Amino acid sequence: MRLVLFDNTDLGWGSARRASGARRRREGAERAHGPAPEAADLAVVGEAVGATIGLTPIWRAGALLHRLQGAADASLAASSWTEALGWAARTARERGRKIASLQAWGHGGWGYMRLGGTRLDEAALRPGSPLDGALDALRAELAGPDALVWLRCCSAFGHTGQAFARALAGRLGCRVAGHTYIIAFYQSGTHSLRPGETPSWDPREGVRFSGGAPAGAKWSSRAAPNTVSCLTADLPPGY
């Protein structure tokens, strides 16, 4: 079974949070790696699609398209990781089918992905975290090591996010995929790995440097490595 879930909370923020293009670019580059995800993600999305709309309606339409094309058997607009993971495991149990593919669409940065105000990161993967039980339930419903969990968000596997990628694969016991660039229509730096594997991509991929130090994530482009589009339904072979 193939599932798609997306962030239900990105509904736009209006003119009060508008910033100049230069300011959005500067703040997005400075914050894309993630200690202040709310501000970072607003800056990134503001640059990508304008500061008065959110991506939830776009993701909703994309999920419907996936279902119409047969690329998803069910979809959910989720406000938190607890809700999202619980739905995926419950849907698999109720339908009596294991999950071959789970795609999550939302915002993120180096080493994390956010749904609403909650984060999936290395801390959330540790025993005893608030997501511990939900992660166990999801793992039990995945179709083994060949199942795919694809985080379609900005730069979660970039730079320091390589450690998160390894931890996620180990925690779920399956193949995981993510991106090293900021994503929009084009989604670059698409990579995957299985439990126990070492990331094969350069940790500098998708990283913008200033004065020799990491300064933020780069924007996806058609010419960047391992690029798919938001219309791509399945992970290409070799990615």
Radius of gyration: 17 Å
Question: How many E strands?
Answer: 13
Q: Name the overall outline.
A: globular
Major sheet: 6 strands, mixed
- What's the end-to-end separation, in Å? 21 Å
Instruction: Give the helix tally.
Output: 7
Low-confidence stretches: 15-52
- What fraction of residues sit in β-strands? 15-25%
How would you state the average pLDDT, rounded?
87
The assigned structural class equals alpha/beta
Question: Biggest sheet: strands side by side, in what order?
Answer: 2-1-3-7-8-10
Approximately how much helix is present in the residues? 25-40%
Order of helices and strands: EHHHEHEEEEHHEHEEEEEE
Summarize the structure.
By secondary structure, this protein is an alpha/beta fold. About 16% of the residues have low confidence. Helices cover 33% and strands 22% of the residues.
Provide a descriptive summary of the structure in words.
α4 packs parallel to α6. With 239 residues, the chain is an alpha/beta fold. About 16% of the residues have low confidence. The protein is globular, with a radius of gyration of 17 Å. β7, α7 and β8 form a beta-alpha-beta unit.
